[in-house]
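Good day; I would like, with your permission, to put a structural problem before you. A protein sequence and the structure tokens that stand for its backbone fold form the material at issue. I would ask you to consider whether the tokens describe a fold that such a sequence might reasonably adopt. I set the record out below, with my sincere thanks for your time.
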Amino acid sequence: MDASQPVSPPVASPTSMDADGLLRFIDGKWDAEIVPQLVEYIRIPNKSPMFDAEWASHGHMDRAVELMRAWASAQSITGLALEIVQLPGRTPLIFIEIPATDGQAGEDCVLLYGHLDKQPEMTGWDAGLGPWEPVIIGDRLYGRGGADDGYAIFGSLTAIESLQQQGVPHARCVVLIEACEESGSYDLPAYVDHLAARIGKPSLVVCLDSGCGNYEQLWCTTSLRGLAGGNLTVRVLTEGVHSGDASGVVPSSFRLVRQLLSRIEDEVSGRILIEALHVEVPADRLQQAGTVAQVLGSDVYDKFPLAAGVMPMADDLTELVLNRTWRPALSVTGVDGIPPLASAGNVLRPYTSFKLSLRLPPTLDGKIAGDLLRDVLERDPPNGAQVTLELEKASSGWNAPAMAPWLERAIDTASHEFFGRPAMYMGEGGTIPFMGMLGEKFPSAQFMITGVLGPHSNAHGPNEFLHIPMGKRVTASVARVLAEHHAASLRGETSGGAAVAGAGQQGEHGCC
């Protein structure tokens, strides 16, 4: 469907862009429209398919799509065309095309990406807060999904509209908003292939699903870790038995799980023991990690709600940055087979299941890592126990290509204009499977990966929030980069990504 077609304003150059006026327009748009829309979006429990198997019949995903469709279609953006695409058996996708302001056709474009599905509720929300209860306290909008990353469609389109308001030109833009990112984007490759002719060959990819080290600078993500994991189950009995009768004879399933995890991780240091899961960190990423540590200081770990007396895993701040960006790390994120304390009797339990989340270095192949993890855990089971690893996730990470000079200048200009400080570059510990896929499909594309998930924003956890001023300034920064991208293309400094046949699939299921 097509939105209304307003008359295009006179075309201006990016150097004539009124940065203060642009930020005023964006501030007003956020206050009057975007924040109220996000409030309604947060109320929708549109959990990703991995966490809601009946998502289609529940209808929450359709409600979220309709909310975004209605708002996007009402925007005063010249030539905006929006379509809800849904392939059989797959989650829906919002596909938006906006023509270049100078009327030029062709395959080159800017691809702007976000997602609308959410992580599950999680426990531990503070009194008065909840995943589906939007609450604004000061600059923070609390609730699930506003920052991760429901704001993406609103920020992307507002950035484009702000340029058109001033007559600043931009290239053809394609906006993709998917609905299964938190389940590993397993539907997205099919859509990218299905829409390949309409997408074209992006020379710039903008993703608003990442993090920031503070709220005082523009942060760009240079790498993302991969993810391998699933459900490890150790079974020793067909049913529970009296622990006084069986303990000392029947091995404890929990103790056997501990043995198996010790094959993977040093329980004292937390270092992953499988050497094949480590990679050599590139020299430029080592340098960036050192800069991040210097700028953030103790905020590298202070941003986490550490319990009283708990110390980080290393004293060296640079090592901590590298630990969360380039080194493998294991977390146990769920457990089954263990009753809650109030109903736990003197019973030797028949099995123990752990949900494992193994973060992988950005350049490590996710599928190889997943296969290796399964082999290490399932071979030679202790005491002959029944050991299985149901592999749910096997996603590769991503390491950004070298940044073109025009993009580096544009990002730093944006940070100085809208934050008053230089831009920062940092790897992220999470996973965005779409980035690896696009990196393979469009190897010549440049990437601006940024976001609003900063200190204490707690994506996926309790008390998740969107820092509203950060959202506004990231939106303005995207506008500046879009303007500079167009200027660079006129100078011949950009080139469309050379397409590779087939989008491929990033492992089985990964998640951010």
